[in-house]
Design goal:
The chain is α+β, with helices and mostly antiparallel strands. Among the domains are: 71 residues, Orthogonal Bundle (Helicase, Ruva Protein, domain 3), CATH 1.10.8; 111 residues, Tetrahydropterin Synthase, Chain A (2-Layer Sandwich), CATH 3.30.479. Helices cover 48% and strands 17% of the residues. A 4-stranded antiparallel sheet has the order 3-2-1-5. Strands 4-6-7 form a 3-stranded antiparallel sheet. It is flat and about 65 Å long.
């Protein structure tokens, strides 16, 4: 029999917002598999979770750097926000970020690079700074985008200092149109992505496993309502198109940035931008980092609460 620990219940509750006992039941039914338990809760109507990962939990900063044709982001985590506001830590993140484009999104390569002005790798410098500051510091991830014949747009939300913030976005746009107009649209699109957190540019680029997972949830809900199989199947496909895709596909989302009317989709605003730029604009890719997403924050009191629930 699978042992359902307090930490498992805590993790599931943070992901779904469901009650502790519901989380314990879900984990028991799914033999302790977190993602399966998330789906179990959704099928029972006990969770509001959809496609987003666990809530932001770690401290630190997102560093971002971008030129016309290339850009990179890095997430560096610290244990406390106090350290994240420290000038020495901010300079560390900024320096690492400046080297990130050379790594091309490869974290191991980035960590192995020389730290500017030191006879040490970035990984070694991070360890030394951690010892000096007195907190665990880690370079968690990095991503890079490049485009030929276009521009890279960047945006930082909750800006802490130049090139540093809590949410970072890079967008690659290919276009031969007027550079200033393309750049303006890119900035507005990056702000939209920061707010809307899409999963892919088009439906065709979505992870098939993500679609099948959502289809399974919709199918279970339609079946539970007593609909005949044929009708349930149509309802499921309709919900995928009208609900799921509009939530997670960039071009199908309602545009949230400046220049939208609250009803127009990103694709429609893109069409307007193309006319202004005098040439087609293709979104070739994007990257969005939210500080600490997926990392559970330690909370002694809450853990004790969960432990008590598990004992029941």
């Amino acid at each position: 029999m699978t042992t359902i620990t307090a930490s498992l219940v805590k993790e599931l509750r943070e992901k779904t917002g469901a009650g502790m006992m519901d989380c314990k039941t879900a984990l028991t039914e799914t033999k302790g598999e977190i993602e399966a338990a998330v789906d179990w809760l959704r099928k029972k109507g006990l969770s509001k979770a959809a496609t987003k990962a666990g809530r932001v939990a770690a401290e630190g900063l997102i560093g971002i750097v971008a030129t016309a044709g290339a850009g990179a982001m890095v997430e560096v985590n610290s244990e406390t926000d106090f350290v994240a506001r420290n000038a020495e830590f901010q300079q560390l993140v900024r320096t690492i970020t400046q080297r990130a484009p050379e790594a091309g999104g490869d974290l191991a390569k980035l960590l192995a690079m020389d730290y500017p002005g030191k006879r040490a790798s970035i990984a070694d410098e991070v360890k030394e700074r951690a010892a000096t500051i007195g907190e665990n510091i880690s370079v968690r991830r990095t991503v890079a985008l490049a485009v030929s014949g276009g521009q890279i747009a960047a945006y930082l939300h909750n800006r802490a200092a130049d090139g540093l913030g809590k949410i970072g976005v890079l967008v690659a746009l290919r276009s031969t149109g007027e550079a200033e107009k393309v750049a303006d649209f890119g900035r507005r699109l990056a702000m939209h992505i920061a707010a809307a957190s899409p999963a892919a540019v088009t439906a065709a680029e979505l992870d098939p496993a993500l679609i099948e997972r959502e289809r399974a949830v919709y199918t279970a809900q339609a079946t539970a309502s007593g609909k005949p199989a044929a009708i349930a199947a149509k309802i499921v496909e309709g919900r995928l198109r009208k609900e799921f895709y509009q939530q997670v596909v960039l071009l199908q989302q309602t545009f949230l940035g400046a220049g939208g009317d609250g009803k127009a989709t990103v694709a429609e605003v893109l069409s307007v931008a193309e006319k202004a730029a005098g040439a087609p604009i293709t979104v070739t890719g994007f990257a969005r980092y939210a500080l600490g997403e997926g990392i559970a924050r330690k909370d002694g009191d809450f853990a004790a609460e969960v432990a008590a629930a598990v004992q029941r």
